[in-house]
Amino acid sequence: QGQEKLSCNPKKENGTHVVLCELGNPMKAGARITVDMELSVSGLEHMGDAITFHLQLRSKNSPSPSHGSVTVTVPVEAEAEMELRGNSLPATMVLPTSWHRVQGSRRLEDHGIRVEHVYELHNKGPGTVSGVTLSLAVPHLLGQHVLLYLLELGTEGGMNCSQHPALNPAQV
After folding, report:
1. In this structure, which of 38, 60, 140, 152 has its CB flanked by the most CB atoms within 10 Å?
2. pTM for this one?
3. Reduced 3-state DSSP string for the chain
4. Domain boundary at 75, 104, 120, which?
5. Which residue range or ranges hold the Integrin alpha third immunoglobulin-like domain (predicted)?
6. CA distance 73 to 17
């Protein structure tokens, strides 16, 4: 008829987390009860594709207790929103029309103006992520002409990086 909050107590039995809820005592014969439970489970990152709950109804008072049980499997889906941010320093640059690259030079200024491109990959959550791959294609040639001379590639924050084979070919 009405709604009541259940008194539930978490326990650990044989390495399994158990939650015991008292539904009522004494309970009249033939009573029907509907229970809605909301469980908050943490640490699901390493649980795999699903988590299984074993639900069992036990009566302490019955001479021949019935132990109805049911198994409920709930799929685990991680949710995380990734965001890629990028900047170029300087934001704009203009080469004079008379400027030409000096072939064979090992001086950086003879190859053009230094531009640094910085990319940041952010996890906006709510879940954690691992094993993320970011592929970044940088056009360095325009036909047979050097468009961008790729000097170096660096990372921060424990990321691994595979470098392009055309990185700093003149060893500037």
Report:
1. 140
2. 0.51
3. CCCCCCEEEEEEECCEEEEEEECCCCCCCCCCCCCCCCCCCCCHHHCCCEEEEEEEECCCCCCCCCCEEEEEEEECCCCEEEEEEEEEECCCCCCCCCCCCCCCCCCHHHCCCCCEEEEEEEEEEECCCCCCCCCCCCCCEECCEECCCCCCCCCCCCCCCCCCCCCCCCCC
4. 75
5. 83-171
6. 16
Task: Enumerate the β-bridge partners of residue 52.
Answer: 73
Does a structural domain hold residue 54? Answer: yes
pLDDT digits (tens, 9 = 90+) for 26-67: 677 777 778 787 777 777 767 778 888 888 877 766 665 566
Measured torsion, CA atoms of residues 161, 165, 171, 172, in degrees rounded to the nearest 10:
-70
Q: Is residue 66 domain-shared with residue 95, that is, in the same domain?
A: no
